[in-house]
Specification:
mainly alpha; two-stranded antiparallel sheet; 4 helices; 2 strands; elongated; membrane
Length: 146
């Protein structure tokens, strides 16, 4: 007769799982809101304030498509994060970085919301970078090197 020993979950693993879920939820929210923002810019670009003397001048319909695509990709990646897929962590960092750049370039059109999305993206990048996968396939918090 064999005995099974239950796998003990450490506090580090719980932190890691929590941060991954946190990043997935934030990325889902960011994606859905970016999809809405993209649709608004595509359908009716008069919703956004335009600044005539901004260094980076872009067509708002084009920016709408950029936000729509980034939002859709973010939602797909968030679904992968809920399943703790490594590819989702890596691409989540890349997409969150692209969202930061896109929102920085669209600051004059929707300034407050762009700053909120930049902050959300920063939290997503932090949450995805602070955990690492160990040999057992579970995530744990990265050690501090001070």
């Amino acid at each position: 007769m064999t005995t099974t020993h239950p796998h003990r979950v450490t506090a580090k693993q719980q932190w890691a799982e929590g941060l991954t879920v946190f990043a997935a939820v934030l990325l889902t929210i960011m994606g859905v809101l970016d999809i809405c923002r993209g649709i608004m810019a595509i359908v009716q670009d008069e919703v956004f304030v335009t600044t005539p003397d901004y260094v980076f001048a872009f067509d708002l319909t084009g920016w709408g498509w950029v936000h729509l695509v980034l939002g859709a990709v973010a939602v797909v990646i968030a679904l992968g994060l809920f399943r703790t897929a490594t590819w989702a962590r890596v691409t989540g960092i890349v997409v969150a970085s692209l969202v930061i750049i896109a929102n920085f370039l669209s600051l004059p059109y929707f300034p407050v919301w762009s700053l909120v999305m930049i902050a959300f993206s920063g939290f997503v990048i932090w949450a995805l970078c602070v955990v690492r996968r160990d040999d057992t396939g579970l995530y744990e918090r990265a050690p501090r090197d001070l």
